């Protein structure tokens, strides 16, 4: 099923009215209706909000709505190594020497761990990595990712107590 903008607005309006009603019952002395016409909401969303989303993405900016989702333009993949020549060679020769050893040859190896620590603090590796990142171009494809607690919150309606967001 596809939901269009008019249906979304109708549902939004329903949700607003519900909260409005609830507030009127709970706090009648301070209640002031904030319901507005469907026409106004439709105009704001269709003619302003959605075009603003598009302009933001066109500029190459990412949109992150906490606890909901992230929308961003995808980037082209850049061919090449992420390490400087010296460390790329070191990694290659380590790989050759430890072929077929599996994960133990890496995670359990002090030599490998030392090499990885070295590349992380190496300035040439850092600038190479940045170079690769800068060479990536924005495409017209878009990725839409729900937040880690997106489904949990929707199900429980626990908007008042969001779970801590895990960093990726
Ligand atoms: Zn390096």
Please tell me about this protein's structure.
With 168 residues, the protein is mostly helical. It has two domains: 83 residues, no CATH class; 49 residues, no CATH class. It contains six helices and three strands. Strand 1 and strand 2 form a beta hairpin. Helix 1 crosses helix 2. The model has no long low-confidence stretch (mean pLDDT 87). The structure holds zinc ion. The site of zinc ion has 8 residues, from helix 3 and helix 5.
Summarize the structure.
The chain is mainly alpha-helical and 168 residues long.
Total of helices: 6
Secondary-structure class: mainly alpha
Number of domains as seen in the coordinates: 2
Q: Name the poorly predicted regions.
A: none
Element string (H = helix, E = strand): HHEEHHHEH
> How do the strands line up in the largest sheet?
1-2-3
Ions, cofactors and other ligands present here are: zinc ion
Major β-sheet annotation: 3 strands, antiparallel
Query: What percent strand?
Result: 5-15%
Compute the average pLDDT: 87
Report the principal-axis shape: elongated
Pick out its properties.
mainly alpha, 6 helices, 3-stranded antiparallel sheet, 2 domains, 168 residues, 11% strand, binds zinc ion
Set out the fold topology:
Blueprint: H1 5-26, H2 38-58, E1 63-65, E2 69-75, H3 85-97, H4 110-121, H5 123-135, E3 138-146, H6 150-156
Antiparallel strand pairs: 1-2, 2-3
Helix pairs in contact: 1-2, 3-4
The structure holds zinc ion.
């Amino acid at each position: 099923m596809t939901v269009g903008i008019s249906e979304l607005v109708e549902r939004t309006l329903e949700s607003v009215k519900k909260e409005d009603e609830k507030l009127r019952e709970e706090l009648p002395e301070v209640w002031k209706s904030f319901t507005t016409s469907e026409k106004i909401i439709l105009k704001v969303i269709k003619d302003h909000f959605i075009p603003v989303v598009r302009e933001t993405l066109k500029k190459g900016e990412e949109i992150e709505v906490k606890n909901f989702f992230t929308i961003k333009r995808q980037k082209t993949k850049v061919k090449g190594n992420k390490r400087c020549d010296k460390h790329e060679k070191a990694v290659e020769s380590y790989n050759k020497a430890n072929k077929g050893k599996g994960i133990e040859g890496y995670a359990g190896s002090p030599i490998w761990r030392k090499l990885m620590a070295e590349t992380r603090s190496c300035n040439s590796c850092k600038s190479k990595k940045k170079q690769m990142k800068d060479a990536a171009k924005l495409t017209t494809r878009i990725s839409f990712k729900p937040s880690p607690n997106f489904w949990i919150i929707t199900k429980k309606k626990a908007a008042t107590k969001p779970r801590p967001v895990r960093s990726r």
